[in-house]
Amino acid sequence: WMENIVSSKIEPFYKGGKVQQYIFCTCGPRVNILQINTGKIIHSIEQDDQEDITSFSLSPDDEVLVTASRALLLKQWDWKQEKCTRSWRAIHNVPVASMTFDCTSTLLATGGCDGTIKLWDVVKQYCTHNLKGSSGVVHLVEFHPDISRLQLFSSSVDCGIRIWDLRTSKCICVLESHYSAVTSLAFSPDGQTLISSGRDKICSVWDLKKKAVKRTVPVYEAVEGVVLLPGKSDYSQMGVKGEGLHFVTAGSKGVLRVWDSSSARCVFTQMLPDAPALNTEEADLDPRSLMQLLPMPRSNRLVTVTAETWNYWACFSLLMKFVGYNDDILDVKFLGKDDTHIVVATNSSQLKVFELATNSCQILYGHTDSERTASPTFGKMTFIGRVHCVAQGSGHSNAVGSVACSRLKKAFLVSGSQDCTIKVWDLPDPLPDVGCDVMLMTARLTEKAHDKDVNSVTISPNDKLLASGSQDRTAKLWSLADMSLLGVFRGHSRGIWCVQFSPVDQVLATASADGSIKIWSIQDFSCLRTFEGHDASVLKVIFVSRGTQLVSSGSDGLVKLWTIKTNECVKTFDAHQDKVWALHASSKDDLMVTGSADSTITLWKECEMKQSKLQQELSNLLHEKKYLKALGIAISLDQPHTALRVIREIRQQEDGIQELEKTLLKLRQDQKESVLRYSVVWNTNSRSCLDAQAVLQVLLTHLIPEEILQYQGTRTHLEGLIPYTERHMQRIGRLLQASMFLDYMWQKILPNFPLLLSS
């Protein structure tokens, strides 16, 4: 069927920190650089020590990137080449919480959690100032835009704004107005006025000549960002009149507001499209709350950041929305006439619709509970690619685990629930237009279907049959005309996660937590074939290649391709680090999408090949015992599962220990580094821990410590080995004790065995 190639990924790129005008954002130990028109990561800068980045700043000339990590190191990067050009100790005793460049890109200020501020000459590479006097964490530092003033503004947990004279290294004034953390500062073009925002739900307008508050603006929400209204565009349609100072705020209620600084009046409000309003009680905890507001001066545009997304605005119209973090991916489906979009369900209460060409995302609100809801909803997609809710049904007494829509015509849908029932819902005909009220659906049929949770429902291609799979270890076949039971499929030893009809044959595929996939005849309900190969639960299965092959995904993080006729697994895809809950093929069978609990969505291209050339080459190399080349291929493809297969093949030989030692020591340094990284993962599983320990024994015995410490992330890898190795040793110790007890009992019983037989 295919040589599967990862076409693209939608993966986590943002977990907090700053987003600069060129879309630089932090994700753990990495700074990701995104292309703004596609949302794709074009560069990724990663800390060698794998320590999380606590703060970073990009110079105004876009040339120098500086990062600070929990290891108390500052690093200067040539981000275009993804290369660290300089590294030095931060001098701070605790992590750096904030940093900023001056307008000349030569002076860098860092604010520490120790209450001190350091200034660094980036060109001459030395510390120029050490400013003391702040209370607690310095979470905000900003240079005055007029460099001739040589002033630095800072704020810490005491809620004051300190002004530092860099000529004397002294604090010349503390601006006191806020009663909670100051979150953002914005300077007027002439540098005479400062606007500060705080979580005390006010903005203060300061006269910097008099060092006094000119006006306090009540905003009625915790404000996380403030910027001056960008550019000299005509904003009269928004109520902006005159040339007075106007500023924009963003905060906990998830809206943008434009304020007149002279009258303290809100003249314009812009909500996120399709997002319901937040009330005051829930606002502070809602993921729609805006955490940052950043200007893009060159394009007169704004970027807003929430806990999950960043939004790109022009003239207060949302151009693009990108999701930086998806939580666990629970399901994904292609959407649109030509499969131009995918819709994603995660363990949050919103659905996300991604446009594949740009990665831009639309978030659908409506459900109230995370993961699953007790009411199915039905949406409609417009010709411009927007999805709107048009119908909703309520009736289940517990969470809905699966829904399926009729295939020939969008006439009805079926839902399966944790309340053990299946309901059939008639869809409105015609479907309401966008903008009309959401119609309420009523269940036409309800059936108590299983003894435990209904995990999966699917409708046959002719809309006449329904199959259901349950945690009670059975699958059932139903007539959709009256929900009469036609038969029961029994044979799995654990719960069934997925059921799927063949598009061409009268068979049903089931995927189970017992690690197997079965194909059943819907004529006599007999099991025709069983596929085994996953090391854990099989979570999803689909038919591909016009029903001649299966693709399955499991909680072992693997995706497998099976040929039904020969009953064999022809390829294993190793692209996820956690359970693969989501799996779907496009209508043309040329694309496949997978989603995992590792928050990554992977899009696969598929070619018409029964077995990939690379897989065949690997099999040939193993048969010819060319282990070094086989292991090299697995490492080059970054496929730990394939590398494990090679290691196991080597260890099964008569001289396996010597062969493994010879193979591993011939690897290049970067390949040894990869094998060490794989071993840490293998060591977490009792099925592969012996293989991991065999590899580790060779590497740790024959390589000098200095060489191992040069590997990227060695310290983290070795620390990750210790708890699992201790657990394996305890397990082996218990096994040894049990075997010794068995041996003791056998020695005591054996002499008396003839007497026992005679009696």
UniProtKB/TrEMBL annotation:
Q: Which PANTHER family match?
A: TRANSDUCIN BETA-LIKE 3, TRANSDUCIN BETA-LIKE PROTEIN 3
Compartments it resides in: Nucleus, Nucleolus
Chief site of localization: nucleus
Residues annotated as coiled-coil are: 643-677
Stretches assigned to the U3 small nucleolar RNA-associated protein 13 C-terminal domain: 615-748
Question: Could you tell me which species this protein originates from?
Answer: Cyprinus carpio carpio
Cellular component aspect of the GO annotation? 90S preribosome; small-subunit processome
Q: Where is the signal peptide?
A: none
The WD repeat boundaries are 89-122, 131-174, 175-216, 393-427, 447-488, 489-530, 531-572, 573-605
Q: Name one GO biological process term.
A: endonucleolytic cleavage to generate mature 5'-end of SSU-rRNA from (SSU-rRNA, 5.8S rRNA, LSU-rRNA)
Q: Which GO terms describe its molecular function?
A: U3 snoRNA binding
* Pfam families documented for this protein: Utp13 (PF08625), WD40 (PF00400)
- Name the keywords, alphabetized: Coiled coil, Nucleus, Repeat, WD repeat
Identification of the protein by name: Transducin beta like 3
